[in-house]
Amino acid sequence: MLLSLRIQDFALVDRLELEFGRGLNVLTGETGAGKSIILDAIDAVLGGKANSRAIRTGCKRAAIEASFAISAAVSDWLRAQEIDLLDEGSVICSREIVNSGNSLRSRLRVNGVLVNRKQMGQLRQYLVEIAAQGQTVELARASRQRDLLDAYGGTALWAARDRVATAYKTWKAAEQALEKRRQSEQARWQRLDWLKFQLQELESAELSDPQELAQVEQEQERLAHVVELQTHSFQAYQILYQNDSGNTPAATDLLSEAEHLLTDMVRYDDELQGVLEMVQAAIANAIEAGQRIQRYGDQLESDPERLAETEERVRVLKQICRKYGPDLSDAIAHYESLHAELADLTDSDQSLEALEQAYEECQAALLATCRDLTQQRRQAATQLECQLVKALKPLAMAKVRFECRLEASAPTAAGADRVIFYFSPNPGEPVQPLVETASGGEMSRFLLALKTCFSQATADSSPQTLIFDEIDTGVSGKVAQAIATQLHQLSGTHQVLCVTHQPLVAAMADSHFRVDKQAIAPRAAKVRRQPPTKPAPSSALLL
Hints:
Blueprint: E1 2-10, E2 13-19, E3 24-29, H1 35-45, E4 61-69, H2 72-80, E5 90-100, E6 103-110, E7 113-115, H3 117-124, E8 128-132, H4 137-140, H5 142-153, H6 155-183, H7 185-205, H8 212-224, H9 226-240, H10 251-266, H11 273-299, H12 304-324, H13 328-345, H14 352-392, E9 401-412, E10 415-424, E11 432-433, H15 434-437, H16 440-457, E12 465-469, H17 477-490, E13 495-499, H18 503-506, E14 511-516, E15 538-542
Helix pairs in contact: 5-14, 6-7, 6-14, 7-13, 8-12, 9-11, 10-11, 12-13, 14-16, 16-17
């Protein structure tokens, strides 16, 4: 529900602040007084088109701010857009239009957060709907007529449409999987051949240990230098433990001499006991090291065949690393991924036959849900035809004929129906598509009757704001009274804003605003609100 509207330097308006109430809000005034400017401002602040004429002459900037009561749908939208709720329990939409020389800049905000026109358009559908004589473009779209029929059908019909949307999504996924498989069948076989070649190469390498290359390289080095290792191990043994040449004593011999000396010294000074123990430990370590190096040298044997094997293994492993590495762990991981991809490509569930069967099953399910949706739409269309004709007859359309036709179409997420409104306002004339037949006045009355049908068919705990701009033009008497009655009926479930010239309509208002236009000095405009007058409260605006 629209709570308040603030306008500054928009069109002819200097400054204006309005507060709207529940029920029927009527705006009256002489032709050209500026009533439609208020509706234009509401349209603009909710993302409608704006040009340089939207800015008051002599000004560079126009600003509009509209405050709406929060509904559950609006709250959900704000959370989805990550926009904070206000403490006042309202949502504030604002727009700033700036004329910067040769260009026109515009900024839209919701609760102070910048949004684009697409986002504002999404929010707008939860806040306001405008029905005016020029609003034929929206109804001209078959998709809009289909949405109107579905909305009239209520929650059960929308639930059926949701099931169609789910089935359609599943069917499209199956279709895409099948088409992708058909298009890539040749590429799949080529990929399979390449995968098998790589797997064969990696399997022949018998990879298991990521550290194998380092280990084999070490073994290769040992086998390639076995003679040097034998010589050096013997020399190390002599140096450490036993030197038969007699030229140079072994390390153990020298340490033993030091041990004897220290043993004698300890008898006179026990502070050297620690040094003695260190030497004794060194003797034991030297003996152990000498024995180990001797055993190592005794075990060394020249093995040309094994050396050739290690050289070949190193060559193979390095080649694998160059192609699939850079190291063996990467090559092993690549081997495992190849296995998984091969299993995926050869999986029986991914065969053409399986995909074709899945596609046919999904298509059958989609068509079944579409048939159910079509049946519910036909029932809703029959009810809408009867109710809408009944609502149109008091509006100077006693002989009106209306048909809501369903034509078969290719399945979509919204079903397999094309909904077209057919209309004939005069007896003896065949029904034709609404937008090709209805005049401006007839279209306005059609919209009013349609909204009346919707208010009777659906219940909304958070009424939407409906705006009607001079829909009673060219009518009087009983027709004007019928329009007033239907507007009043709508105001029981919706907030209604109506620009009118009919006293019968104004008399039904819950809030009455009279619009006057007067030339004033810049920034001197005031908003004058008059005391309520019977039968409804009223106020006068001086623009």
